[in-house]
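User: My collaborator and I are trying to settle a disagreement about how two of our proteins should look. Neither of us wants to argue from intuition anymore, so we agreed to look at predicted structures for both before our next call. Could you fold the first one, then the second, and keep them clearly separated?

Assistant: That sounds like a sensible way to settle it. I'll keep them separate. The first protein:
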Amino acid sequence: QVQLVESGGGSVQAGGSLRLSCAASGISVSWYCMGWFRQAPGKEREGVVYIDTTGGTSYADSVKGRFTLSRDNAKNSLYLQMNSLKAEDTAMYYCAAVYGGCRNRRSVGDFRYWGQGTQVTVSS
């Protein structure tokens, strides 16, 4: 059974930082295209960052230079370091996975496995 468990969300003031974690079980993260998505109230879920099986990453323009994704294969986990947070980063953040590389995979429907999400709230 595949499980993705997110943690690390919380409330922070604008300009602050948070570090999200995604612990995977039932899959090996190094063999999967892994992504972080977010969904704000009344908005569609959107991709934030992806990491390929090669370790290559791809960031949404809105978070480039502020967010950093890393992967720890030994711990079978992902870490999303979020710096210089803005009010518009407020959302539920989800970890997602699909077997294989990330090529042409950017949409919610492309990903098979999802975590339950962790809430990030940034106050201005």
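The second protein, kept apart from the first:
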Amino acid sequence: QVQLVESGGGLVQAGGSLRLSCTTSGRTFSMYHIHWFRQAPGKERAFVAAISWSSGSTVYADSVKGRFTISRDNAKNTVYLQMNSLKPEDTAIYSCAARTRGYCGSCLPSTYDYWGQGTQVTVSS
């Protein structure tokens, strides 16, 4: 069974940090791009960052550049999202998604092959 499982969310004060994990299992994801998305209450899902598992190349949304870092650990089959200098507007449910057809920050959800269940991040002011 293929799974993406997010963890690491929680409550943090503005200016603080959190590290989210997206742990994969059930197949090899070496040919996938792993994306992080977030969705705040009443808002549409938004792209956050993506990484090519094979090359390690990364892409970021402008809103998180310089504050968030996406990385992967091949041995642990895990992609991380290190979030620093958090702001209240970063509050959202964060989900990871795997896509074989390359990076895409704005494609239809059905074009991503696998999704995780999401983890809540709350940043207090």
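Some points you might bring to the call about the second protein. Residues 56 and 117 are 24 Å apart (CA to CA). The longest strand covers residues 18-25.
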